[in-house]
Amino acid sequence: MPQKCEIIAEVAQAHDGSLGMAHSFIDAAASAGADAIKFQTHIASAESTPHEGWRVKFSLQDEKRYDYWRRMEFTEEQWQGLKAHASEKGLKFYSSPFSIEAVDLLTRLGVAGWKIASGEIANTPMFERMSETGLPFLISTGMSPLYEIDAAVERVRAKNIPFTVLQCTSIYPTPPEKTGLNMIPLFRDRYQSRVGLSDHSGAIYAGLAAAALGIDVLEVHITFSRYMFGPDVIASVTIEELKQLVTGIRAIEMMLANPVDKDAQAQELQPMRRLFNKSVVARAALPAGTILGHDQVTTKKPGTGIPAERLNEVIGRRLARAVEADQLLSESDLADVEA
Hints:
It is built from 13 helices and 13 strands. The protein is α/β, with parallel strands linked by helices. β6 (about 165-170), α8 (about 185-190) and β7 form a beta-alpha-beta unit.
């Protein structure tokens, strides 16, 4: 039986530095049926320099990218509040670190595991610090060639740490032809591990398709509205879409867990078969002794008489007694075939 897919609602920077908004996302993700909530923990002075450039200049209120990272920061006490809120709602709590200082903060906090962002997969010092905790790894692969993913897997495997490899495409939003669903079975075979999808498509379709392949983890960005501010909105699903996604994945899991035996199913459906199948019937009132041909008989519902597939066996038979128009024929209506 396929394992239940862990659905992670990724907030990232959608809270835009608002602690209240961050808490609201926890409530929304729980109401939509997600299994986990995920943030990103940025400590500007530890992860960046004031010289970091914008990939896309999306913020009018932040002169530099560095200023934006500072605005995304929460204090350790605030992070503790978010973690406690998630626990109250029955959600696992994840947050991607972007510095060793963030790793240490999240270790004190007690995260469920480590989600390695695509740009951090080759950050060996941070990997080492996270490995010391023994917590499971979610390895994102959005910008990495296979040799880099191989190296990351070997680092965690050498520590006997559980891990999941996530197919990811660092294009926002990711078009269908760039999703790379083919990598899911490839990763499963290559690493003999749990696999998943970190989705940036901004729609529910990739997640549903991946669920049909039996993924273990799905991470999807969330937003309250497509009119919200922030760099991740175009690659996010709304809370209503998240609900649809969760419902769809649980339905897919039920389908995969319950293979159908067609013979047994047909037996269960016998009452319906009798209603919808067809039987051999008389086209018109016919006297006893009539030799039946295609002009005398046809097939009509219900399927409680001689089955329609036996029509050719009836052709050439003689009526043992008179029948009415539209009468369903039975074996007792037919005489033996004369030699």
